[in-house]
Amino acid sequence: MSQDKLSPPDRAMRRFRFVQFAVLAAFAGVMIATSAVIPRAEMPWQRWLFAAGPVALLLLWAWEFFGAIRAQDEMMQAIQLRTIAIAAGLVLLGASLWGIPERLLDAPQLPAFLLLPIFALVYSLVWKIAGGQR
Q1: CB distance 112 to 92 below 8 Å
Q2: What is the dihedral angle through the alpha carbons of 16, 20, 114, 70, rounded to the nearest 10 degrees?
Q3: Residue 27 and residue 118: Cα distance in Å, rounded?
Q4: Beta-carbon-side half-sphere exposure of residue 47 (alpha carbons within 13 Å)
Q5: Phi/psi at 130 (5° precision)
Q6: Per residue in 88-108, pLDDT tens?
Q7: Which sign does the torsion angle of CA 93, 97, 103, 106 carry?
């Protein structure tokens, strides 16, 4: 289907999918590069500057995510927000459950920066299970 025949919500969702893939790929690359560069930075402000790259990419992802939801009609927004609530609840539950062996059994720590990518994955799975059409 050509871009001009898509409804505004479908265009927003197509844009979000493209941006999501691009941002997640950039996030992975920037995290690898930043991890290599930060130990060599001599000044604290330089380390903070390099750490701002992945932060900016996650903020861009969140902006696009909520923009795609706002482009939907009220019914789709309600479905999206319900899916977000379920996915967020599952991620919080999983992180909390992992925190118990982490604290009591010295299990490996779950890096906090992975919570948003984990949420994105769980959100997409919940969306598919809930019958998301787009």
Answers
A1: no
A2: -10
A3: 14
A4: 8
A5: -75, -5
A6: 999 999 999 999 999 999 899
A7: negative
